[in-house]
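Q: For a teaching session next week I want to show students how multiple molecules come together into a single three-dimensional assembly. I've collected the sequence lines for a complex. Could you give me the predicted structure tokens for the whole thing so I can convert them for display?
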Amino acid sequence: MQQTRRSVIKAGGALGLLAVLGSALLRPGRALAAWNTSAFGAKSAVDAMKALGMTNAEDSKDIAIRAPDIAENGAVVPIDITSNIAGTRSISVFIEKNPFPYTGTFDFPEGTVPYVHLRAKLGKSTPVRVVAAAGGKFYTTAKEVKVTIGGCGG
Amino acid sequence: MPDPMKIRATLQGDVADVRVLMAHPMETGQRKQGGKVVPLHFIQTITAQLNGRTVFSADISQAISRNPVFAFKVKGAKAGDKITVTWKDNEGESRTDEATVRGGS
Amino acid sequence: MNKSLVLGLAAACAAALLPPAFAQTEDPVAADFDKFRAVLEQDNPAELWEVKGEQLWKTPRGPKRASLEQCDLGLGPGVVKGAYAQMPRYFADVDRVMDAEARIVHCMITLQGFTYEELAKKPFSSATKTPDPVSITTYVAAQSAGMKLAPPQSHPKEKAAYDVGKQIFFYRAGAYDFSCASCHGVDGQRIRTQPLPNFTSPAQAIKANQGWPGYRMTGGVMHTLQWRLNDCFRQQRFPEPDYASEMLSALLTYLTVNAQGQEYKGPGIKR
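A: Of course. Below is the structure for the complete assembly, covering every listed component.
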């Protein structure tokens, strides 16, 4: 059966990330084992959280997300996250409406404040979801950030 | 050899406020230039040490902005301590830079 | 003169001296943008180009294998600190007013042996390449961070440049009959989410200078005022101005003199 170019590209797009990273794994001398390909390749925050084993995350008011209500430019959105939950070991970020929502996990060994500042690309208006891991449990909250078309850019 | 990072580590009491600016295109693999798709090229892992002890690490995606900036805070730091930051990308490139913790406010 | 007329004139003068109400502070969206842009500017990717620009300034390059360390930006050969804040200015060796980037291009030509044609061919940044004059202008501008803008207006050609710049600012042309003033000549205008500062007003004219050279979030590229003016002309459907031309130096003279006395904070971040 002949596939049209369009259908090949469409199919390729969904698997594109995994395909590229899969071939990258063949390169020598690279510690990619820890980088969670299936979580990073998940198309929804829910699926990414499953792949990361972040089950039963309970809503928490003790995680503070500071981000603009409206982003001046979706390409560079500053996000400050502080977890006030005792024993927070990591903070994970999911930009729910991005093509691949899982954006990263930041680990805090003993002695590091559970705080991170990062800058992310938001493809469109979206909740920014954060999951904090503490004491073997998961806690979550989200903040909506609007992304709009700007002006001239001066 | 990738361009160097800019690392600033300033003491606020006994907490070192560490700010890192990395030079990296963080290509999503969805951008076109000259009619061709620019391949995926992004930092995947970051680690930071204070005097040789790991104090921060991260796994990140291509959704982090171009020329990434991160900030984190390490307790128990002193002026003169050494902060070392390393990033590794999906092409096998890596960069390590260091800075000295400076006394601040 | 009678007493009521004197009082009337005094009141009018007092009112004229009051700072105009900023359109920007009344717009909560713009205020929020300003707040988060300040967060972004704490760690500005522009710093990567400041470093690059400094390397380019100090490294012997070009057919003449010379560095730019003898380049006179108006304060004497090699004096970089404070020079950007005092431009555009008149340069006797070329008998014309030059803005910072035009002067840097001039030094690259005369000291290093580059040609105008090669520097003007692709003078603006792309995602993969930043032209050397852009990096160097970023470095030079950073050395004026925290200083008050003070473009000189003592030489007759500096005054003439201001007048010509003002004429250009108000000159209506192109398919839409736009002038710079159409967008930037009155208070309270905006394009989508962005307020358009009124550059004829001294208090708002600082916005024509503040944050340039700027790391533009759109595309993650470094841009100078030469790019910004070129892009304004494009948006006005004007013909493309010549890179680093006398005409652009005049327009920059008008914009910078209008903002004189206000603090320039160095390279910034732009949308």
